[in-house]
């Protein structure tokens, strides 16, 4: 995936997180934030793989 594509995904994740944080506190909000954190971890892994030429 291109650097631009990864940047777009990171921006999307940031918007999702901001929206999720506006939700009322509770289990569902926490689950959404965890999902977003996993999504961001996957993006970071792709960025590292890209830097390593994989």
Gist?
By secondary structure, this protein is mostly helical.
Can you give a write-up of this model?
This protein has helices at residues 3-21, 27-51. The chain is an all-alpha fold and 54 residues long. The protein has one domain (3-51). The mean pLDDT is 93.
Strand content: under 5%
Nearest-angstrom radius of gyration?
A: 13 Å
What is the global morphology?
elongated
Spell out the helices and strands N to C.
Answer: HH
Q: Summarize the amount of helix as a percent range.
A: over 70%
Number of DSSP strands?
A: 0
Please work out how many helical segments DSSP would assign. 2
Output mean pLDDT. Answer: 93
Unreliable spans? none
Q: What structural class results from the helix and strand content?
A: mainly alpha
**How many structural domains can be distinguished in the coordinates?**
1
- Span of the ends, CA to CA: 11 Å
Which assembly state applies to the chains in this document? single chain
What profile does the largest beta sheet have?
A: none
